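Can anyone check this?
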Amino acid sequence: MSLRMLIFIQHWQFTSWEYLYFFGNPFIMMTGIFLGIRLFKQLNESKTSFLADLKAGMKVAGMYAVLMAAFAYLYYSFIDSEYLIMKLESQIQIVIKNGANQGDVLKHRENGRFFLSAYFMSTITLVGFIILGTFYSSLITFFVRKVRNEA
């Protein structure tokens, strides 16, 4: 959240600095998953199974996904409500520049209003982070178990 707010405050939207948010979020998620698995293993004195470790990582990923989806909705609805409108208009200009007729422009604008809405963006954020969290949790669980010779 702080990365997104930093980009907003510095007016770095639509610049290459915006990639800081897109690459920083997975790093933060992976760190949280690793720390969650590590804490789970420290709290359990006996050897844990792969599935139990995976679940520990997924708990962290799930909480992160819900938190980020709620933040995405609030961000696009209230904090930077002009962002999605400006994004849609820049895409409309590209369509016009490519020689689309008036009907195509209207159809693109109508579709863009649905896909570039706060509700849709928060839903995509939730689903995307759940999928990424599952992948990262299984990958990190595998490597943690490999390093500890538990495989």
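Reply from J.R.: I decoded it. The chain has a mean pLDDT of 91.
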